[in-house]
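G., the chain you wanted modeled:
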Amino acid sequence: MFAGFVFDVEGTLVDSVQQNLSSLQDALEQHGCRIPRQALQLYSGLDGDQTLQLVVPEASEPERREMLRLRTDIYEREYLDSVAPFAGVRDTFRALMDLGGKVALATDCKGHSFKRYLSLLNVGEFIAATACGDDVEHGKPDPRLVRHALAKLGIRSTQAVMIGDTPYDAEAGREAGTKAAGVLTGGFEAETLLQAGCFAIATDLQALLFSLQSGEAANKDQAAMDHLLRFPSDRRAS
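Predicted structure as tokens:
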């Protein structure tokens, strides 16, 4: 079993992906940029400035900063209240802690949104460390968030696993020296997470618990099939 478990938050612990995409799309449109939702989904979970460099390459650095500021304002004003935690987070954290594991959060979000998520999740007694956007300048796939969380846990990277819903979570974890595991709650398909280096994937945290406890992959093909059965129209590009 792993000694440390580093969790992403948005899309992994709280159901916020569509709200984040909507707020980004709204901010871009206010700047005269109409970007299809499908295109934005490809970069869900990627560092915000990197995302804008890819979808609006003509935008200057000051323009990108203003877009990101506006996106945050829109998200917190219009979408944050609709975010809810995924089922089973407390049970998953409790099970890992009961086996001697330490849990950390590593998320690009910060400020009011991060505080709101912590309140919704109500798992403070299980969290040994947090690393958020207030702690580092660069978001995932830059590994510094994960490294910061591991340093706070006091655990070597080889003893830890990064759990997230995007390929950028997996890449950040692997670059930091951890293993990576993925959940299908963020809109990415199983194959995308596998290609990013996840040793195990599952439909959600509860289904991933066996792999986190054992360090072994469950049936990845079955996890992908379960996802398609539950969300038959969810065929987002990867």
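The longest helix spans residues 61-79.

Shout if anything looks off.
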